[in-house]
Each structure stands twice: as structure tokens, then as C-alpha cells.
Design goal:
By secondary structure, the chain is an alpha/beta fold. Helices cover 37% and strands 15% of the residues. The protein has helices at 68-77, 98-102, 104-115, 132-141, 155-161, 168-180, 200-212, 229-240, 245-251, 260-276, 282-285; strands at residues 7-11, 18-19, 27-29, 32-33, 61-65, 86-88, 119-123, 144-149, 184-192, 217-222.
Length: 299
């Protein structure tokens, strides 16, 4: 896949925190819209429709919320805010290459650290190593987790599926750096792609590598193809893996999700591999953070 240079739009955010329904978290935060990692399967491609842009523009039309940290600080000052966990990176990668220039994610983490507000960040980006200092503070005084997204150890395969993302080796090394600093790191082995990343050997190798590099847990889920994303992904699959489209058309003919049996099988396999690797549900069992002071943000 040829990566076309992106057009970057600087915008002003009216709000920072997004109320989320139907997910295991209540609040999300996204410093950017669109993502240079260009993952062909990314469910967030559908969100570009709200900007009157096609799913194919997800990696070429990028939006930077330049004032997001200031807005976040004001929202955390509100009397009605009670320090609930905030999930960063649900609709775009907060450590995509733009972050090296704009540092919006870094600024938001510093606001959370000042407020001792718990949360997590999900990323494929190895740039997160830059922020080990503030992540260490968040882990120690607020409670914070990094989720590294990694669906395969096959570099050639990932070059076709997520051409703008760091290599699997770089991501594993980043997990090791974060874990060595005392930061809790989980691996998001999601989405699992039928016929591409779901064979037992691949899953076994990935879970083992995650454990060896210090990850405390691995979470998984099967590929979803909502409208807009499905069309883009099917075209990408046809170009890179011409033998696969018929089976994908059959699997996703009726709905955007795979049947329950497939999902339970994958989850069961990964659960067994996780236990064999000595991992536990670290997010549930993690000790309570040490409070260093009262809320630092002025009321």
C-alpha cells in the first residue's frame, strides 16, 4: 500500500471527555481524528463519515485538537467530576506520528497526573516511551495502564494490514521498556482476523512473546466490520490476499460481527495461552495507587 502524504487540520475542541455507552469504560479522550497508522481493519474509519469524509481518508485527513489539554483541565475542575477512569485512544491512536510534533497526548497525561486521575491509554505507537516519566507518576499515584495493540508477530503481514504502524519487534521492545519502569502493560490482541492471524501457532507465539517482554495480560476480540469499514477492508484484502474475499463475504454477509462460536473459541484459546504464560488479570488485581496529595487542580 502506498502511503499518501496527509493533510493536517488544526482544530479547537469544544469538549475533551466523551461519555461512552456499551463499553467497559465510561469516559474516553481522543487527541486526534484520523490515524497515520492506516490499519485496514480499524473500526474507527467509520467515524470519518461524521466529517463527510470517506473511510479511505482516515489516514490522509488528520485532525489535531490543539487546545485539548486546556479543555480537559477545565473539565476536571468541575465540581461534578469525581475522578473516574479515562480511556485514551478509543477512536484514534494517541501516539501516531503527529504526536511527536504536537505533544497533545503528553499534555493530557500531565493534566491527569496533576489531578491524580486514573485511566489507561491504548496505542500501537512506540513514541509512548518518551512519556515514561509521566506514565510512571500516573501508575504510582493515580492508577494507570498501557494497552499495546499487537495482532501478529509477522512483520510482512502487518505491513499489508497496518502499513503506518511500528514493527512488532519495536512494539515488544516498548512493552519491555514500560514494564521495566513499573508501568502495567497489557496487550490488545485485537482484532483477530479469520484466516490471517487466528491460527494456534500465531496466537501462541504472540502471547508467549508478550509475557517474555513483561506484559501482565493479553486481551482479545474478533474482527468487526461495520458499514463503511467493511467496504474498505474488503478492497484491501482483495488486493493483498486475493484468495480470501469469498470467505470473508460469507462470514460477514449477515452482520458486522462473527458468530458467537468463533468468538468464544478465540477467547478460550487466548485465555488458556495467557494462563500457561503465567499471566493474571492484572487490571483487576492491581494494588491501589499511593495518594501523594489532595487534588492539585484549583477549584
Amino acid at each position: 500500500m502506498v502511503m499518501v502524504p496527509p493533510v493536517v487540520h488544526e482544530i479547537q475542541a469544544r469538549t475533551a471527555l466523551n461519555a461512552v455507552q456499551g463499553m467497559p469504560f465510561k469516559w474516553s479522550l481522543n487527541p486526534y481524528k484520523g490515524c497515520r497508522h492506516a490499519c485496514t481493519y480499524c473500526y474507527a474509519r467509520a467515524y470519518h463519515a461524521y466529517l463527510d469524509l470517506p473511510a479511505s481518508a482516515f489516514e490522509t485527513q488528520l485532525f489535531v485538537k490543539t487546545n485539548l489539554a486546556e479543555v480537559l483541565r477545565e473539565e476536571l475542575r468541575r465540581p461534578g467530576w469525581h475522578g473516574e477512569p479515562i480511556t485514551i485512544g478509543t477512536a484514534t491512536d494517541p501516539y501516531q506520528p503527529l504526536e511527536a510534533q504536537y505533544r497533545i497526548t503528553r499534555q493530557c497525561l500531565e493534566v491527569l497526573a496533576d489531578a491524580e486521575n486514573p485511566g489507561s491509554v491504548t496505542t500501537k505507537g512506540t513514541l509512548i516511551r518518551r512519556d515514561i516519566d509521566v506514565l510512571t507518576d500516573l501508575t504510582r499515584f493515580a492508577g494507570f495502564t498501557v494497552n499495546m495493540s499487537l495482532i501478529s508477530l509477522d512483520r510482512d503481514l502487518l505491513q499489508k494490514l497496518e502499513p503506518g504502524a511500528p514493527s512488532p519487534t519495536s512494539r515488544l521492545q516498548t512493552i519491555g521498556k514500560l514494564a521495566a519502569a513499573g508501568i502495567s502493560v497489557s496487550v490488545f490482541l485485537a482484532p483477530v482476523l479469520p484466516g490471517l492471524t487466528d491460527d494456534v501457532e500465531s496466537l501462541t507465539d504472540l502471547v508467549r512473546a508478550a509475557a517474555e517482554h513483561g506484559a501482565s495480560d493479553v486481551w482479545t476480540g474478533a474482527l468487526r466490520l461495520p458499514p463503511g469499514v467493511k467496504e474498505y477492508f474488503m478492497q484491501a484484502v482483495a488486493e493483498a490476499f486475493p484468495e480470501l474475499p469469498p470467505s470473508y463475504e460469507q462470514l460477514y454477509a449477515a452482520r458486522p460481527t462473527l458468530n458467537t462460536g468463533y468468538q468464544l473459541r478465540i477467547e478460550g484459546q487466548v485465555s488458556g495461552l495467557r494462563e500457561k504464560a503465567g499471566m493474571s488479570h492484572a487490571l483487576i488485581e492491581a494494588p491501589q495507587p499511593t495518594r501523594r496529595r489532595q487534588l492539585a487542580l484549583p477549584i
